[in-house]
Amino acid sequence: MDEKEIQAFDELAKLSISDDSLGTAGAASSLDKENINVVFIGHVDAGKSTLGGQLLYLTGMVDKRTLEKFEKESKELNRESWYLSWALDTSEEERHKGITVECGRAHFETDKRRFTILDAPGHKNFVPSMISGAAQSDVAVLVISARKGEFETGFEKGGQTREHAMLVKTLGVKRLIVVINKMDEPSVGWAKERWDECIDKLTPFLRQTGFNLKTEVEFIPISGLKGYNIKEPIPQGMCPWYTGPTLLGFLDSMPSIERRLDAPLLMPVSGKYREMGTMVTGKIESGQVKRGQNVLVMPNRHQAEVLGIYIEETEVKSAKSGDNVRLRLKGVEEEDVATGFVVCDPIRPIKAATTFQAQLVILQIKNIIAPGFKAVLHIHTCSEEITIASLEYTIDRKTQEKSSKKPMFVRQNESVVATIECGGTICLEAASDCDPLGRFTLRDEGRTIAVGKVLKVYATDETNAS
């Protein structure tokens, strides 16, 4: 960094933004509201982006004129039903193909809460992007198409409904809202029989995945395209058998998310760019951050100062666990930061290691997993090639009893404790210390083959001792 840039940094810190102009949580009173991070998941074409666009419109975040512009442009491409999704799908590739490629991001608010939408790709080729979005979320909205044939395609093997639900549970998402979309479609016609059929097929799978159906799952029928049952109830007489909440009504009435406010600062980096210095984006998983605070960027141990904090488009004095933020850092170059790094407290930094012990549940593999098996690890916003170094013991999934001998290999549906070696140094914590930074997935050949939790991090030096 040259002298002019350093001078610009110092001037920026002293600029017209006085403490009086920034509230403790932000300049706008809306930033005082609890923030909930919501990821939309589900099979391709289930209507995730359309629902996201409808939410933005119904909450006033996208005006009618903008939507009319999108509608006109989509008609010119013979894609009339896609215009709502364009509020989230902003790239030309996404608009022309009608699929979400990257994890879109937007914001809306209700009287009680602020929400950050993460619109995850539904196509199986973009599952890694979906994992990154889910890792930053508190609530998942699983969008199911009720249209004949589409529900079956998404839920059967090869569809993304099952994999997405399993991934968000593994990644620590606290609550699942299952919206049965396209209920107004002519082949469905708000029929209770089709609703019951979808629910009856989904519930055993969700229970098996680990969701508590009474406390963690809610089913809501909607029409994303028409906006029915999103903000306002379904018109009288159209769906007399449903008396539950609207989608926004349920999002507003959920219990508050428990946050790790008093824990050390931990913010996995989901993106970076240069704008009057180095900007990093991410969700604060624990602790708090203040303007002027000294932080450590791990695993490369670069010390930095927080010059600015931004929530949505507003600069704020501080942010806390649960907030999606952008941080302007002084003292670190853009090339010194990568997705999967973690901004943390210099006094109590996150562990950084190349080896750790974990418990794995093997989901679907062609043959067996034995020492030497290679896969790609996805943990918080980080992805890294790994090798199964050794298998320590298996765990009976019913009795939780440990085997007395080291297994030579494991098969599908088995649970095993293994030692894992990474291709490079990564940031992680034991799941018992910080769940969001200790749960992960393993993928191989385009499929999720295992889910796991970190049990122990093997230190590379004394400061990182477990």
Automatic annotation (TrEMBL):
GO terms for molecular function: GTP binding; GTPase activity; translation release factor activity. Pfam families: GTP-eEF1A_C, GTP_EFTU, GTP_EFTU_D2. The keyword Nucleotide-binding applies. InterPro entries: EFTu-like_2, G_TR_CS, GTP-eEF1A_C, P-loop_NTPase, Sup35, T_Tr_GTP-bd_dom, TRAFAC_GTPase_members, Transl_B-barrel_sf. Residues 33-262 form the Tr-type G domain. Its main location: cytoplasm. GO terms for biological process: cytoplasmic translational termination; nuclear-transcribed mRNA catabolic process, deadenylation-dependent decay. PROSITE patterns: G_TR_1 (PS00301), G_TR_2 (PS51722). Keywords: Cytoplasm, GTP-binding, Nucleotide-binding, Phosphoprotein, Protein biosynthesis, Repeat. GO terms for cellular component: cytosol. It is found in: Cytoplasm. The keyword Cell membrane does not apply. PANTHER family: TRANSLATION FACTOR. Belongs to the TRAFAC class translation factor GTPase superfamily. Classic translation factor GTPase family. EF-Tu/EF-1A subfamily. This is Eukaryotic peptide chain release factor GTP-binding subunit.
